[in-house]
Structures
1.
Amino acid sequence: MSCPLLSLQNVSKVYANGTVALEGVNLTLHPGEFVSLVGPSGCGKSTVLRLVAGLGEVSRGSLDWHNREQERQLAFVFQDAALMPWASVLDNVHLPLKLKGKRLRPSRANLQEAINLVDLQGFEQSYPRELSGGMKMRVSIARALVTKPTFMLMDEPFGALDEMTRGRLNDDVLNLWAQKHWTVLFVTHNIYEAVYLSTRVVVMAARPGRIVDDIPINQPHPRTDEFRTSSDFNHYCREVLTALSHSETGSPA
Ligand SMILES: Nc1ncnc2c1ncn2[C@@H]1O[C@H](COP(=O)(O)OP(=O)(O)OP(=O)(O)O)[C@@H](O)[C@H]1O
């Protein structure tokens, strides 16, 4: 396997109020992996993402980038698309970068490319109130795309969407992942989504937040509906489910 991109070694995170969100987390990511974090509410999935994004310091242990350039090329997509209601799709995709200054100001062609990549051509002048939940999430992904990331952090981006929309966006993200050679760290509560998307599913447990299993999904990409309905898919889902239920009862997986 290639050189690691990022390693978390024995990472613990204790918040100011004393909550031990993570304890002894070891996680290594390689370029091109699509890794999903699954686990019960409060097990520290978002905390891992925030630490990787540099939105907080580890309390113990270390978080090391093996190539500092990659750290600068990460983008974060949240469950809440967090669009500015008074701004058009085009301006929503543009504005956060505009605020960051000239160096990151993309050209109109860059903005249009990002909008096209998420299939929103024709909606450039629409306002968030005119868009469905799935379309808002597409705008949020376009906003990440204009920064030309190589590493995507996605925190339950499709948690609020219906099954059909979620399925379509899953395929679109997989296409972008392949096309743009991204590395993805993806948080979800949905084990089917995790298995469908990922090259690896990392299972976490709560109190304290820790990793209890790391399950490779040894199936080729692109993933298809055939995979979704295959016995291999069922097998992987059952493996993740078993690891999750053991993590909740405390018995070994
Ligand atoms: N800023 C904070 N200050 C204090 N405690 C926090 C803070 N952020 C998170 N926590 C606590 O840390 C623990 C882990 O939270 P985190 O949001 O990382 O979990 P999660 O697995 O992403 O949860 P969910 O699936 O519900 O989003 C929880 O007990 C949470 O209440």
2.
Amino acid sequence: MTETTLCFPRRTRESTGESIEEVLLIEKRRGLGDGLYNGPGGKLEAGETPRECATRETREEVDLEVDPADLEKAGELTFLLDGERHSVCHVFRTRSFSGEPTTTAEARPTWTPVDDVPYDQMWDDDHLWLPGVLEGNTVVGDFHFEGGKPLDEAEFVEYDLKWNVSFDE
Ligand SMILES: Nc1nc2c([nH]c(=O)n2[C@H]2C[C@H](O)[C@@H](COP(=O)(O)OP(=O)(O)OP(=O)(O)O)O2)c(=O)[nH]1
């Protein structure tokens, strides 16, 4: 069973007297979810913790530095494909980072107002859990897909969500 991560860097930008809440999204340029908007993230490597993976993937995909200790666990999402567990994704958020997000071969980053997240260009389940995560809630979810591999071509059919769970990692 594959473990994966997602990292959602957050900032508040002041613009002409207004505070705009933003999240760093990437347009993924290869791999699973190619062409969709998402947070930086990917598969755990051997010996890595989810936090270490989220830090490494954020550096590799957009050249932004986040400290594993500064990541706040916000979600644990299980993706099921044709009734079998396909992957578990650890979701983190943080307001602490250094550097400027940079386009790489893997991803094109964009600071996006949280009120303007392009859910119609994201995975079909994201509109169910990402708004709550961006509001500061925690979530555990199961998401069922059907139709065979790859996961991003399967059909999203049903889900179960629990909000405001506590994580001890
Ligand atoms: N937002 C969102 N992300 C998802 C969904 N399903 C799913 O696998 N992901 C994420 C988890 C991972 O960050 C990413 C897939 O990871 P991956 O490891 O297969 O992708 P990759 O090709 O970039 O992998 P890597 O070699 O960089 O580790 O997509 C979903 O339904 N919604």
